[in-house]
Design brief:
The protein is mostly beta strands and about 750 residues long. The chain has a single domain, classed as Maltoporin, Chain A (Beta Barrel). The chain contains four helices and 41 strands. A hairpin with a 4-residue loop joins strand 37 and strand 38. It is globular. The protein starts with about 25 loop residues before the first helix and ends with a strand.
Length: about 750
């Protein structure tokens, strides 16, 4: 595995460990030019195995990582499994420009790339970072939180990718690629047990060729975790999960020119996520929480309501690849269904029968998509990918709230739905003027039709705490948008290539549809657009034992769609608004070095300056609007990851594998209103493992240590008015585990 999934020995522990930041891009560029030159000294150096070439599909056709003029981080699926990183939330430590927002439900989660993401529970808005699994675009961010099975790799494409990956890729793409079905019959079973909450995971897989023309694979998963937060009201552990699922793949090779791939997956889970663990509170709130004592590292709650999320994620897809001479025609037809039910304790305290705010929300989402692509043969003057895309998504949601104030109970229920039809035509060309010099030009046209319907019924004719009076509204909007990319790429020599690109990003219109929707929320939000400039260098040296990639970027966003704090029915909520203009710029460096046959280092580091350029204050805002120049949420200025892997072969055919990784990040602001109480200070996480394996006999045993420095931190901090609460991460403290695997 390369790039941000492996490491170097330098571990950044303090801000001062970095060189002067204004010199870094120039110094890194000089380094890349230097390593791109032939290295005479390498002839006398001890020979080591070259780094494996990494295949990516960042341009919708297979290429090597070093060829594509795109900033990409690649995470190897096998290594993620060995590190117990099983979902999207667990990989952000390894990719410095990728960040994640946790919530009380996976419906509330978001991904951020280069400082930009969308925070909203509304079904009428798209994520800014697209998640694509085996060519299928996921329409809702909550869908992408499922556990990943049969994972080959994850490609994190940084910057606008709307030309080839769609309109909701205006900040980047998480491109997930599963393993192909094996040629020979094979299978595996592995079991993991981790402390710090009694986590158990069991996986089983089998696959192989079923006939001359058909091969397939099937993988299953079961896992449970008690959690690392205690509810003192009943003594139960929470912040855990129980999941089970399966994924199957059939590959039918009708001829040398025609292949059909069928994929089905199903994942069902229950997460006992608390609505938030209170870290700071007023005297009155603190007295209501007793015996819980709010503190920065608190992991206790006192709740009279079982907060949890029941989630079912499933899908079917059919991909047809047809070789028409030297051309390839690809068709991907897909359906995905997502059912989600969340139960939340809105007051985060045990106050019944005097006061309470208890919620139940359900989501029933279905999407259907069809994509056609035609890829020209390589080696021509004009290499291109042309395509057409259609997706229909429908979401039906119900949200109910019980509000008890001074012993008086009121209830409210909202039923709302959205539907979106998106049609697009796209294409990207690479013009090979010479063997070393080429130009890129791509364009995408998108048409969106978005509709919503909302009805709320309340037992009170006037606003009460947490519930607005009865109302009904509906609306529709349609927009045409353009996105694209153009640029130049030049190969300085066989070991060094550089590129310069301009990209136009587009994210469609939106509606802020939620439980307490009001007349001021019925207007559609304008589409979000972005203009991005990127300069990159990709180099190899020392007989391909050293690889380094550098990217410098600057992106301006207009009509940025963001959540901002407001007060609705005496309760602090977030409202989706066109926040104005934001800017993100910085530099990223990925490197990997095969020092010897047994020793490998790799690292990734990024400086990301993501700031509010100009904020449009919404009417009636309950929070500070003077935030021009403020930091965008969930994005530290500095972030780095480093890893070392060492293999010790033994005489009896056994291998000892030693690994250690360290991730560090600068302080991060979690709230757009720049609340000083929602800032997580800088911290670092150190992990290590030791394994004994006999690959000839097909077994491996590993001992893992997570967060060896015993660092407690917040995945998210938010304000509840007169208190602050956090999301507690899985590795909020030191814990150990063991993994057992047998291949057959």
């Amino acid at each position: 595995m390369v790039w941000s999934s492996k490491a170097v020995s330098i571990m950044y522990k303090e801000r001062n460990a970095f060189p002067i930041k204004h010199r870094q891009p120039l110094a890194a560029a000089v380094l890349l030019v230097a390593i791109g030159q032939p290295a005479q000294a390498a002839d006398n150096a001890p020979q080591a195995t070259a780094l494996d070439a990494v295949t990516v599909t960042a341009t919708r056709r297979e290429s090597t990582l070093q060829e594509v003029p795109v900033a990409v981080s690649v995470l190897d699926g096998e290594q993620l499994e060995r590190d117990n990183r099983n979902n999207v939330a667990s990989i952000v430590q390894q990719v410095p420009t990728l960040n994640y927002r946790a919530g009380a439900s996976n419906k509330d989660t978001s991904l951020f790339i280069r400082g930009v993401g969308t925070i909203s529970t509304s079904p009428g808005v798209e994520p800014t970072v697209a998640t694509v699994v085996d060519g299928v675009v996921f329409g809702r961010p909550g869908q992408s939180t499922l556990d990943l099975l049969d994972l080959a790799r994850i490609e994190v494409l940084r910057g606008p990718q709307g030309t080839l990956f769609g309109k909701n890729a205006s900040a980047g793409v998480l491109n997930v690629v599963s393993k192909p079905a094996p040629e020979q019959p094979e299978g595996y079973v592995d079991y993991s047990h981790f402390g710090g909450g009694n986590e158990n995971r069991l996986r089983f897989g089998i696959g192989g060729r079923l006939s001359e023309q058909l091969k397939g694979s099937l993988s299953t998963l079961w896992g449970d975790y008690d959690g690392n937060v205690e509810n003192v009201a009943n003594g139960h552990d929470v912040n855990g999960y129980e999941r089970k699922g399966a994924r199957g793949k059939l590959e039918f090779e009708a001829s040398d020119d025609l292949r059909l791939t069928l994929i089905a997956d199903y994942m069902n889970g229950e997460d006992t996520l608390p609505s938030g663990v209170i870290t700071r509170a007023s005297t009155a709130i603190a007295s209501q929480l007793r015996p819980v004592a709010p503190s920065t590292h608190n992991r206790d709650i006192n709740s009279d309501f079982k907060t949890r999320v029941d989630d079912r994620n499933q899908g079917l897809s059919a991909q047809l690849d047809w070789q028409l001479g030297d051309y390839t025609l690809t068709s991907i037809s897909a359906w995905r269904g997502w059912d989600n039910t969340q139960y939340q304790d809105g007051d985060r305290r045990a106050l019944l029968p005097i006061t309470a705010s208890h919620d139940k929300g359900t989501v029933d989402y279905d999407q259907y998509s069809q994509e056609f692509r035609l890829a020209s043969p390589k080696g021509q003057f004009n290499e291109y990918v042309l395509g057409a895309f259609y997706m229909h998504g429908t979401s039906n949601e119900t949200y109910q709230r019980l509000s008890v104030n001074s012993g008086v109970a009121n209830t409210g229920r909202a039923d709302y739905s959205t539907s979106n039809d998106s049609v697009a035509l796209f294409g990207e060309n690479t013009f090979n003027f010479t063997e070393d010099f080429r130009a890129i030009f791509g364009l995408r046209w998108t048409h969106d039709d978005l509709e919503y319907d909302h009805r709320r019924v309340s037992t009170s004719p006037i606003a009460v705490t947490g519930i607005q009076p009865s109302t009904a509204s509906s609306g529709s909007v349609d927009e045409d948008g353009w996105s694209g990319r153009t640029g130049l790429q030049y190969d300085f020599n066989d070991n060094l290539t550089g590129y310069l690109t301009y990209s136009r990003g587009y994210k469609g219109p939106a509606y802020n549809v939620f439980f307490n929707m009001q007349p001021r929320d019925t207007e559609a939000l304008k589409p979000e657009t972005s203009d991005a400039y990127e300069v990159g260098l990709k180099g190899t040296a020392l007989d391909n034992r050293l690889m380094a990639n550098l990217a410098v970027f600057h992106t301006d966003y207009d009509n940025y769609q963001a959540n901002f704090y407001d007060t609705v029915a005496n309760q602090v909520v977030t409202r989706l608004v066109n926040a104005g203009r934001v800017k993100t710029q910085g530099v990223e460096l990925d490197a990997s070095f095969q020092a010897t046959r047994q020793l490998k280092f790799s690292a990734a580091a990024a400086y990301t300056k993501a700031r509010v350029d100009h904020f449009n204050c919404p009417a009636g805002a309950a929070a500070n609007c003077d935030i021009d120049g403020g930091r965008l949420p969930f994005t530290p200025d500095w972030k780095a990851y480093a890893r070392a892997d060492y293999l010790i072969p033994l005489d009896n055919g056994l291998d000892v594998e030693l690994s250690s990784d360290y991730s560090w990040q600068d302080s991060v602001q979690f709230s757009l209103d720049q609340n000083p109480d929602t800032v997580q200070g800088a911290y670092g996480i150190w992990n290590a493992s030791i394994a004994l394996a006999d690959y000839n006999a097909g077994w491996r045993v590993a001992l893992l240590g997570k967060n060896l420095g015993d660092k407690s931190y917040a995945q998210m901090l938010a304000s509840g008015g007169d208190y602050i609460y956090r999301a507690v991460p899985r590795d909020d403290g030191r814990y150990f585990g063991v993994q057992l695997r047998k291949d057959f």
